[in-house]
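User: I've been trying to design a sequence by hand for this structure and keep getting stuck. Would you show me what you'd pick, starting by listing the structure so we're on the same page?

Assistant: Good idea, let's start from the same input. This is the structure you sent:
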């Protein structure tokens, strides 16, 4: 028997509740899986919040065990790459959308989806990072790959007090970049400075319609917001700069022109964490293990039990959660 957050929908009635499931139910609903994992921690990302509150078309198969992330210990494996006792991390691959997910005490996954837990990270720390932090690292690595160096100039991080933003600030400041945090929460200025932000600006400076080309400021951008914020960030990016886009908190639209791209050579790089190839995924996790300041990670993390995850989802979508939330599935 295991406890899990089960999402159900019948006759237009949606429910997200902690339920006790039989091992047989888990096996029956994950026929393609070949690794059983005792989950120790999961988390609530933005996509999880949408699924748990039924406010976005995240779930594609019903019923669904929620949770796009998991970290724990292998119980059983028919794949030679993993043996009982191995510590593993899972992010994405349609888990929590089309395949039963990680907000549960046990889960079954394909071996192809699992990353061995990097040395030096605990399962709790891995979920304090989660998809949000792993996505942040993919963004930061993309900036460096495009030639954006600390000497290139300021880096803008939007949605700064959220999960992606918080960890991106910590990573980039740790690498020596001057980071400017954009947030709608003026009360979080000290928190963002503690993560390494050199300056904090009001998100209102970016969230309304703006000119196609604006005063050049940013050498690089990590954007988790989309819509007008992303359009203005591109319009303010310096010649030859790079913008990484990974989120849609303001919206999926992109009300921009080609001007920044053809007149300033600005590069817009899309960041996908869900189907990211394994070599790049593993490299990002190794860099997180080696480069991310644990004290800053702790300061950005709160912990809740499985039954509290749905409440966290509502607060996250309302902008009332800062940083990262770890879910202890056995609490």
């Amino acid at each position: 028997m295991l406890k899990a957050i089960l999402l159900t929908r019948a006759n237009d009635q949606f429910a997200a509740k902690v339920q006790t499931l039989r091992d047989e139910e888990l096996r029956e609903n994950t026929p393609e899986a070949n690794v059983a994992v005792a989950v120790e921690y999961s988390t609530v990302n933005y996509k999880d919040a949408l699924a748990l509150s039924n406010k976005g078309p995240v779930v594609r198969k019903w019923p669904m065990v929620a949770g796009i992330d998991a970290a724990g210990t292998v119980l059983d494996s028919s794949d030679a790459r993993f043996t009982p006792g191995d510590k593993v991390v899972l992010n994405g691959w349609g888990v929590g959308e089309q395949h039963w997910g990680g907000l549960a005490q046990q889960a079954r996954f394909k071996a192809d989806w699992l990353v061995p837990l990097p040395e030096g990270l605990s399962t709790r720390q891995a979920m304090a990072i989660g998809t949000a932090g792993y996505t942040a690292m993919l963004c930061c690595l993309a900036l460096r790959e495009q030639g954006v160096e600390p000497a290139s100039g300021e880096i803008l991080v939007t949605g700064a007090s959220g999960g992606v933003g918080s960890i991106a600030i910590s990573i980039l400041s740790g690498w020596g970049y001057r980071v400017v945090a954009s947030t709608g929460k003026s009360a979080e200025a000290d928190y963002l400075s503690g993560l390494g932000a050199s300056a904090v600006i009001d998100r209102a400076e970016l969230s309304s319609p703006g000119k196609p080309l604006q005063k050049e400021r940013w050498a690089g951008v990590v954007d988790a917001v989309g819509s007008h914020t992303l359009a203005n960030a591109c319009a303010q990016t310096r010649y030859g700069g790079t913008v990484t886009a990974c989120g849609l908190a303001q919206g999926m639209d992109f009300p921009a022109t080609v001007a920044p791209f053809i007149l300033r050579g600005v590069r817009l790089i899309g960041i996908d964490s869900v189907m990211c190839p394994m070599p790049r995924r593993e490299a990002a996790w190794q860099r997180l293990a080696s480069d991310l300041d644990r004290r800053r990670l702790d300061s950005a993390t709160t912990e809740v039990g499985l039954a509290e995850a749905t409440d966290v989802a509502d607060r996250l979508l309302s902008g009332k959660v800062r940083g990262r939330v770890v879910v202890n599935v056995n609490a």
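That's my pick for every position. To get oriented when you compare it with your attempt: Residues 131-270 form a domain with the Rossmann fold fold (CATH 3.40.50.720). The mean pLDDT is 96.
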